[in-house]
Amino acid sequence: MLCYKKAGIKLGAEAPAEEELDELIGNVFDELKERGFIAQVSDEDAVRRRLGEKTVTFYIGFDGTAASLHAGSLVPVMAMTHLRRAGHRAIAVIGGGTTMVGDPSGKTEMRRLLDEGLIRSYGKSILGQLDRYLRFDGTGAIAVDNADWLLPLNYIRFLREIGRHFSVNRMLAAEAYKLRLEKGLSFIEFNYQLLQAYDYLHLFRTYGCTLQLGGDDQWGNILAGVDLIRRIEETEVQAVTFPLLTTSAGAKMGKTAKGAVWLDAGLFSPYDFYQYWVNCDDRDVGRFLRLYTLLPLDEIRRLETLKDHEINEAKRLLAYEATKLAHGEAAAREARAASAAAFGGAGEQDIEALPTTAIPRARLEAGISPAELFTDVGLTPSRAEAKRLIKQGGLTVNDERIDSLERMLTTKDLGPEGLVLKAGKKKFHRVVPE
Q1: Which top CATH class is 356-433?
Q2: Strands (DSSP E) along 129-210, which ranges?
Q3: Side by side, which strands form the sheet with 356-359?
Q4: 186-237, pLDDT tens digit by residue?
Q5: Residue 434 and residue 432: Cα distance in Å, rounded?
Q6: Which CATH architecture has domain 255-351?
Q7: What whole-number distance in Å separates Cα of residue 362 and Cα of residue 180?
Q8: What superfamily would CATH give domain 4-242?
């Protein structure tokens, strides 16, 4: 098991209250299905029955390919949270071993092989983010690192005991491998399915884990684990996958013009995280409320009836609840206050809540172009885009529209709150001199 103290992370600070565990109405599988979490199930009747009759130990793996999870990773995290709150035991597997091989699923090219120390660092960061949702307490939710059992494996013994149960023809028929055969599939990647299947076998033997969950692109890998346990242990375990989501506009979940919507506040601020949700497409509000919040379904159904300008109530609630889960209640309140300040009628105290960047006063004294400043603080992805918005009248400073590409910002433009930048109708940032 991952050593929490060694990793330097305080986990399990607040386990769910008993009354929270009793709030779930009916079978948690049916709730997950109604919320839109379920894509494929190995045996739906068996999964529903087990989740309704007894405590089930389940797991999801998270490979350490980046320093942070992003909003596109939240479907499996939220599903784990619902199951945890319903009284089932969650195992979060940090993929310290599998990340060293690289999952070919959904990739057109081989992943860059990462250094072992970097993988370990990424895993530690991801573990801290998962703890906000799952509250690792060593009982209802635990975290393990598959490097602990994969790295010591004897390769020849592994091939004899595990590899002999895999059919190459069946593996090549899996969607993840079929997509890669045209451009080339490396031998190291070909081993990934065996390792993931072995994870399931190890967790079954060690923790009595009988349910693996993951994204729909993992279906073949997960079924390989189900089949391996059936062959070796002569028992049935189950598998569930989640849909791979896009927005109604066709964009990949968790992506913006600025890049990924990271859960790490240092990479993507709580204010920007809040804005991502509050600015979602009207068509996505109900779906996102079901997937990314813990609000009761009855409340979500009410919010789904809101139309026109009233739908903003649902968007604000979605943004607040999603931000509270990812960053804590205090950060969610601050982000909400900053958003209120940006969108009218807020006083001086609220202005302080806006995301703020300090720049050297000498830079303002010398003069700085709006295109440069807006891009530097992240309100526009490039100077070219900023210039395009200037031509369209889409950039303002302290409520004054920038109407010329030759315009320069200096200390004369400073107001009582510094420079309050606005790009379009919904993106704000404050700049102060230092």
Answers
A1: alpha beta
A2: 141-145
A3: 356-359, 427-433, 419-423, 395-397, 400-401
A4: 777 788 899 999 999 999 999 999 999 999 989 999 999 999 999 999 999 9
A5: 7
A6: Orthogonal Bundle (1.10)
A7: 53
A8: HUPs (3.40.50.620)
